[in-house]
Here is the input.
Amino acid sequence: MYNKKSLKAEEFINHDEILRTLEFAEKNKNNLDLINQILDKARPVKKGNETNCAGLTHEEASILLACEDKEITQKIFKLAEDIKSAFYGDRIVIFAPLYLSNYCVNGCVYCPYHYQNKQIPRKKLTQEELIQEVIALQDMGHKRLAIEAGEDPVNNPIEYILECINTIYSIKHKNGAIRRVNVNIAATTVENYKKLHDVGIGTYILFQETYHKDSYEKLHPTGPKHNYAYHTEAMDRAMEGGIDDVGLGVLFGLERYKYEFAGLLMHAEHLEAVHGVGPHTISVPRIKNADDIDASQFDNGIDDDTFAKLVALIRIAVPYTGLIVSTRETQEVRERLLKLGVSQVSGASRTSVGGYCEEERPVDTEQFDVSDQRSLDEVIRWLLELGQIPSFCTACYREGRTGDRFMSLCKTGLIQNCCQPNALITLKEFLEDYASDDTKKIGEEFIQKELSKIKNENLKETISKNLKEIENGNRDFRF
Ligand code: SAM
Here is the structure.
């Protein structure tokens, strides 16, 4: 039986409920009255200083996804853009992945780090190598990382991960600092989540890969990741362990996207129902070629138009959840998705262990092919030229604005009062310390233009003071 409050995977991600939803969506895909009502429900509503958005249930959102009417698709895109600008403005948060170890005991059939792959060189960073990687990332201007590791209790035990996190936070090279470490490691125990919480991680990220249990078991034939329930219930354990911010994701291409979409939203509804706070972020990776992986062997790949509609509908259904798109996607696809609701992008990513210290991109050991291979400076300039504000902000979690505290500020739109100034201040740091002359020029003009739009004179004055302080060599101001 479907029960979003249940703690059992097969009850809160219920196969029959997904099938019922998809059938209902298919039946109603031309019901324009219903579809327009759903769109109306999802529109941002302004009350005084506050803007609210109702979001959508998995059933409502699935009807919109099923609808093929071109005019409705345009309405969906427009609504996603409106919600994006109401809650996120033009800000795009920047991060980079950092691979610690590619040792893995799992048999995931889509991932080149699966244990049967004997041709890929296995590597685990020593603390000295990690320091060099972090320095390389700091020297580009990164402030926020997502650490990645295969699952291997012998080579990558939790103690190793914790030691790495402590090392990363401790490195202060020139004006650099990593101020938020998000963690993407395999499902683990409440006790281990407590330990991750205690070393001060940002978001705990775990991709579901697929919500379809039978497919999940076939795609993960061996190793601890084979256990669907243990994997699917990981976010509940993470929250029990004190982690406020969790990040969901589906690896699109493994299963039918409509099934995954309904499952993903049911997972978000479950977290909200049980913990009072939905996912902090949702990632939308699509499967890519890699060492011994041929992405075309997976028959559920989605084209760019369907992908754009999916992203827009996630934005509409869970308006307060950050949406992440990685360098798996090309510049062109990323550009399109920015408008439709993406709020975080990675930049200058290397997806192999030790990749940031290599002169040339080490393609043979990458976890997947990187489509957007531009430098961080190029990514920042690109965003500025598109009128987006690249943000290196990490203030929320450092100020204790996590979980429901973050969500309640976000739900009223009041978070904008912090995000906009923090984005400008952290962009200024990047321009002072790391930008090329061209990027610096565009960025400085951009900051002045944004500053002139701020109506609150006190706020404008404080930001201007902070910007001056940064020019004088001081760092790390935040609202
Ligand atoms: N081992 C951890 C786990 O089990 O969740 C860490 C995750 S792994 C380093 C990061 C993510 O990369 C995976 O969750 C998967 O969705 C994605 N991934 C794996 N192989 C991929 C491929 N061939 N193309 C695109 N993404 C891939």
Q: What stands out?
A: Residues 110-111, 148, 150-151, 184-186, 206-207, 209, 225, 251, 285, 287-288, 290, 293, 328, 367-368 surround S-adenosylmethionine (CB under 6 Å).
